[in-house]
Design brief:
By secondary structure, this protein is mostly helical. The protein contains two helices and no strands. It holds the Pfam family IDEAL.
Length: 78
């Protein structure tokens, strides 16, 4: 039985692997939160612009913005 690493070295190596996995998960979660924030901001801005177009009875602008909203929702699955 040949084992070149001590118990403490094995534990340290395992801890390092686990820490890297946790970092990766954190990065994924952060990216998801950022993307969701951007989506909500775009959706809210478009919704306000659509409301303004309706208030101003601007049908061409309303249709354009509605198409953008549809595309945004399709892109992000909402």
């Amino acid at each position: 039985m040949k084992n070149d690493k001590s118990y403490s070295e094995l534990v340290k190596a395992h801890s390092t692997k686990k820490a890297k996995k946790n970092e990766t998960m954190q990065e994924i979660l952060i990216e998801m939160i950022i993307r969701e924030s951007i989506l909500k901001r775009k959706r809210n801005k478009l919704a306000q612009q659509i409301d303004d177009a309706l208030d101003n009875k601007d049908k061409p602008l309303f249709l354009q913005l509605s198409a953008e909203m549809k595309q945004l929702m399709k892109l992000f699955g909402n």
